[in-house]
Design goal:
It comes from Georgenia halophila. InterPro entries: AAA+_ATPase, ABC_transporter-like_ATP-bd, ABC_transporter-like_CS, ABC_transporter_ATP-binding, P-loop_NTPase. It is a peripheral membrane protein. It holds the Pfam family ABC_tran. By secondary structure, this protein is an alpha/beta fold. The protein is 32% helix and 26% strand. The protein contains 10 helices and 12 strands. A 6-stranded mixed sheet has the order 5-6-7-3-8-9, with helices on both faces. α6 links the parallel β6 and β7. α4 crosses α5 and α8 crosses α10. The longest helix has 17 residues. It binds adenosine-5'-triphosphate. The site of adenosine-5'-triphosphate has 10 residues, from α1. Adenosine-5'-triphosphate binds next to α1.
Length: 319
């Protein structure tokens, strides 16, 4: 379940990411055509969108790895284009896979990398993580003394996460973090993300193609298509916004019934149904549009040219 604090709103002092009218052009190709959004402390944001929508480009601009063409961007109070070492130490980046240092052992590498963050400790934020604590957090305690080249794909991915957060970052970028995880590892990873957001107040921005994962993890989902934001809200808000129909299903007298409620709240229909003959009704279900339905509808709309880049319906901008 997404955390109950789910909200796109935040106060000015809470703002961790502020992006306004971000544009990116590669040669003659416009990849981002005016992206505006924000994120606050402790918020988990999922960036979704079809291949080539501009997700990695957006994240790389926020990380300070790529220079934007236009627009204003503030990350932890600084423009990423001019972020210094102290700024960088507050940010964790989980890249696709750590392929170097195959002969190093897990604990050894984390100890080594952690030392770079020691000068950036503050009275309120001790850096880096204690290595044993970090190993426990990512579920690698048993593999602490194993050589990196001998780790399985999933264990290696956990190490990627550990490397990304070793400096105890306030903001974490995760690019498809659970690719290659088995269902158990995936669930443990989701717990880790929630723990980092809830107990460390870390802000987390991740990209994923797994809609169920986005729904489970994210307080807020941003859907990017064709270079602009087509939706920005919690999974529930997105489904409600898009849902032109809710389906009510029930059984009565041994027969299964389905009714599409095309406008308004299905609660009224359910109330009337139960008022008619509550005892006869069983197996009652109300099904709203899933995040997958919403995503496909929105992306198809953009791809068919019906969406011309107008303001997104649920735009929430920290100001
Ligand atoms: N360095 C570059 N030079 C030119 N074009 C680029 C460059 N990097 C990305 N692009 C183009 O910009 C567009 C957006 O790419 P980006 O990698 O940001 O998309 P994405 O949403 O992350 O895609 P995916 O889901 O496939 O990872 C693509 O059309 C891509 O070909």
């Amino acid at each position: 379940m997404p955390r109950q604090s789910a909200s796109g709103a935040g106060t000015k002092t809470d703002a961790v990411i502020e992006v306004h009218d971000l544009q990116m052009r590669y040669g003659a190709k416009d990849v981002l055509t005016g992206v505006t959004f924000g994120a606050h402390r402790g918020e988990v944001l999922a960036l979704l969108g079809p291949n080539g929508a501009g997700k990695t480009t957006t994240i790389e601009i926020l990380e300070g790895f790529r220079m934007r063409s236009a627009g204003t961007v503030s990350v932890l109070g600084s423009d990423p284009a001019h972020g210094d070492e102290a700024w960088r130490a507050r940010i964790g980046v989980v890249l696709q896979s750590w392929r170097d240092h195959g002969r190093w052992r897990v604990r050894e590498l984390l100890n080594y990398l952690g030392r770079f963050y020691e000068p950036y400790s503050t009275p309120t934020q001790h850096r880096p993580w204690d290595t044993d604590e970090l190993l426990g957090l990512v579920g690698l305690t048993e593999h602490a003394d194993q050589k990196i080249q001998n780790l399985s794909g999933g264990q290696r991915r956990r190490l990627d996460v550990a490397i990304g957060i070793v400096g105890r970052p306030e903001l974490i970028f995760l690019d498809e973090p659970t690719a290659g995880f088995d269902p158990h590892a995936r669930r443990e990873f989701h717990d880790l993300v929630h723990r980092l957001a809830d107990f460390e107040s870390a802000t987390i921005m991740l990209t994923t193609h797994d809609l169920a994962e986005a729904e489970k993890l994210a307080d807020r989902i941003i859907i990017l298509a064709d270079g602009h934001i087509v939706a920005n809200g919690s999974a529930d808000e997105l489904a409600r916004e898009m849902s032109t129909a809710a389906e009510v299903r029930w059984t009565s007298d041994g027969e299964r019934h389905v009714h599409a409620v095309t406008t308004g709240d299905p609660t009224g229909f359910v109330r009337d149904l139960l008022a008619t003959d509550a005892d006869a009704v069983s197996e009652l279900e109300v099904r709203r549009a899933s995040l997958e339905d919403t995503y496909i509808t929105l992306v198809q709309r953009v791809e068919s040219g019906q969406d011309q880049g107008s303001e997104p319906p649920l735009q929430e901008v920290l100001s």
